[in-house]
Amino acid sequence: ASVGRLLAEAGRPSFSFEFFPPRSEDEEPILWRAVESLAPLEPDFVSVTYGANGSRRDRTIAATRRIAEAAGGPLTVGHLTCVAQSRHELAEALAAYREAGVTNILAIRGDMPGGGEWEAHPDGLRNATELVRFVKEEGDFCVGVAAFPHPHETSDDASLDAEILAAKVEAGAEFAITQLFFEAEPYAALVERMAGLGCRVPIVAGIMPLTVISQIERFALLSGRDLPADLVGRLRAAGSKEEVRRIGLESAVTLCRDLLALGAPGLQFFTQNRSKATREVLATLRGDVAVG
Ligand code: FAD
């Protein structure tokens, strides 16, 4: 089964969940609790992020394998980056994915551990476009890529980002998943920019409900933009943790509704290995639209 085909043929928006590999053995149960409590929602697919160093990478593949092999488990996407790996190591990671039955890959460049300027491995690849081409050459994989409603920090140039996304599609990518964002407008603008380039790749919207006040700065850093001022104002004025959570979830529901109204082909929830916020947002959405 392929995510590309699913998005092309489902005739309704897909919804999916992203998990990250446990950082240590202690974190394993947290991941499996989240996976198990979200399973009854029957996601169209789930994905597991790729760790920045060797041991995290092994954990990524182990966790992806375990999800993919679960009886009746969801379609599973393995993330792959080209940070600090030779072509040979990338080929090995792909072989391990294939052996685990994972044939859908999210090909992203990755960032330098510690946040330094990007540097390709001497025997590796320079960017995600090269990685997409590499994965396609290694076998019959369906490949997805990252998209940025707000310009990626290194370019800060929306047209360049759109051209890069089009180049990744040209290289063989069949779908894209966005970085998180907070209002539907930048997503709509991205879809329009892509259409202007003649590129109609399905762009799944990445959703991360905010539940605690300390996430304001972190989410801004991740998305490359400050959160909308009126939302921050409401969150800061909230009188309790419960109130913050309610405002955060309400704003995620509004965003999802706006995106579905725009015709977004899918919603990918960045679960952070938790399940409650995702369950609540989805329950509300399923109350009013035919998602899933
Ligand atoms: P690219 O598409 O290669 O673009 C990165 C930058 O390279 C561009 O902004 C541009 O400056 C430059 N560039 C690339 N191609 C060209 C070109 N042809 N000409 C000029 N400049 C060019 N990171 C992880 O480590 N693990 C994960 O599992 C992971 N999952 C992610 C999932 C999603 C949905 C998203 C949105 C991001 C994820 N990331 C992950 C983060 C990602 O690795 C970073 O955002 C990274 O900085 C960019 O990756 P990319 O694939 O967009 O890179």
From TrEMBL:
The reaction(s) this protein catalyses: (6S)-5-methyl-5,6,7,8-tetrahydrofolate + NAD(+) = (6R)-5,10-methylene-5,6,7,8-tetrahydrofolate + NADH + H(+)
Swiss-Prot/TrEMBL keywords: FAD, Flavoprotein, Oxidoreductase
Record GO biological process: methionine biosynthetic process; tetrahydrofolate interconversion
Co-factor requirement: FAD
Oxidoreductase among keywords: yes
Entry-linked SUPFAM superfamilies: FAD-linked oxidoreductase
Pathway where this protein functions: One-carbon metabolism; tetrahydrofolate interconversion
Entry GO CC: cytosol
InterPro entries, A to Z: FAD-linked_oxidoreductase-like (IPR029041), Mehydrof_redctse-like (IPR003171)
Keyword Flavoprotein: yes
Single Gene Ontology MF annotation: methylenetetrahydrofolate reductase (NADH) activity
Entry's family note: Belongs to the methylenetetrahydrofolate reductase family.
Protein name: Methylenetetrahydrofolate reductase
Organism: Tessaracoccus defluvii
Species lineage: Bacteria, Bacillati, Actinomycetota, Actinomycetes, Propionibacteriales
